[in-house]
Amino acid sequence: MSVVHRLTAGWLVDHLSFINQCGYEICDSFARPAGVTHSTSVTSTEDCHSISTFAATPSSSNGPPYSPGDAIEAEGKRAKMRYVFREEFFDISKPHIAAAPEEQLCQGCPEVSLTEISLIFFFILLWNDTDFCCCFLLILQKRKRKCVFNQGELDALEYHSKVRKLIWEGTLHLVQEGLKSGFLHHATAKLSCGKNNVPQRIVCGLAELCEMAKQFPAVKESDHQAVRVLEEDTISAEQDLLSCVIENSSNSAKIILLMGQKYLVPPKSSFLLSDISCLRPLLNYKKKYDVIVIDPPWENKSVKRSNRYSHLSSWQIKQIPVPALAAPNCLVVTWVTNRQKHLRFVKDELYPHWSVKTLAEWHWVKITTAGEFVLPLDSLHKKPYEVLVLGRVQGDVKEALRKPEGVLPIPEHQLIVSIPCSLHSHKPPLAAVLAEFIKPDVECLELFARNLQPGWTSWGNEVLKFQHIDYFTLLQNE
């Protein structure tokens, strides 16, 4: 299961396991030739369709397309080829920046105890002395920087002082359980694969393709198909992939070919690859969603300087048609950076604009395979955690008073602790952790997604980014 441990504080999550449980198994009439790793743990599927005609057969995008003439027939049986996500992307065995002993999470660091640090922060909060808080953090980090902060940094320090104890103690308990069960292991128990074994970032050009799609000839609404199902004789052009929701309704994965690149589509999933200005196909899909997860490309200085990623202003984010997509009592979850300006915007402007009532703030905490924070908890530059703001769409008075039957109320604070993926912005799955707070078999939507999930509709201008076949390893079961 993707949830390894569930405690009062939250969940210890296995992100890699969740990806591989999505069912990236493809049934074909031909088996791969020698040289393919064999697996005996492939789960069979009920509905094994051939790959559609526009889709490439399984092979690396760096090599030539694999043809039936090169295959070995599996004695009349369909060969089951299973893809698994490359585990080296989750081999985070050491912190990005080593923390001082008093800041480390795991046992074996007795210099400063959790109780002592908690007491210090208690007095900081009691005195409400922001300057003292700043100086204290500087002493912990042994940084050669004068205690001069702008307002944004002061706001961030104040917020951190409020959530620090919850994050420290909750993560400590979850890590202890992970170490006991063997899911986590001390640094000496495993050798790192090393950076040299991690593939370089794959450039797919999906965002650029969506930008180009704006130049495609307009299609009349009456002639436009809202959804296309991945079958043997369907989509044959990039324009089809960019103009409607694509749905894999089968129980097996599919491989599609886009601009010469191959992407895996998990079973029972749907997606729309488009720019934010081309959301009409998603609205034409005419589904109302009970869960909407949003990971906006927040505007910040580093993004502007690097010019690597597109970003949206607060005004543009408010234009996302969440009310038109949300079912009554829809649960809305928004990923927020640690910049307090963005957190205040979500709670004070964005959610009220969408008629969403804020219910809780959760935190995603990033740890290594040894259970250490990937960054020092008190780092002034970046934190080892990110914020999620949860809320519910408010309808009429009767709807607002009605409580969903058979589901638990949303806790005010929870932790999602996991080993992060080394790929930028590959967020951990929320399906498993939200399961106890929503009804089964509900419609779920992720906005600004970069990967697909079974049972979910995903939208974004890079929605297939982490579905690229080169992020996966092919296994074969005879």
Automatic annotation (TrEMBL):
<dbReference type="InterPro" id="IPR029063">
    <property type="entry name" value="SAM-dependent_MTases_sf"/>
</dbReference>
<dbReference type="GO" id="GO:0005829">
    <property type="term" value="C:cytosol"/>
</dbReference>
<dbReference type="InterPro" id="IPR002052">
    <property type="entry name" value="DNA_methylase_N6_adenine_CS"/>
</dbReference>
<comment type="similarity">
    <text>Belongs to the MT-A70-like family.</text>
</comment>
<dbReference type="GO" id="GO:0009007">
    <property type="term" value="F:site-specific DNA-methyltransferase (adenine-specific) activity"/>
</dbReference>
<dbReference type="InterPro" id="IPR007757">
    <property type="entry name" value="MT-A70-like"/>
</dbReference>
<protein>
    <submittedName>
        <fullName>METL4 protein</fullName>
    </submittedName>
</protein>
<dbReference type="GO" id="GO:0005634">
    <property type="term" value="C:nucleus"/>
</dbReference>
<dbReference type="GO" id="GO:0032259">
    <property type="term" value="P:methylation"/>
</dbReference>
<dbReference type="GO" id="GO:0003676">
    <property type="term" value="F:nucleic acid binding"/>
</dbReference>
<dbReference type="GO" id="GO:0008173">
    <property type="term" value="F:RNA methyltransferase activity"/>
</dbReference>
<dbReference type="Pfam" id="PF05063">
    <property type="entry name" value="MT-A70"/>
</dbReference>
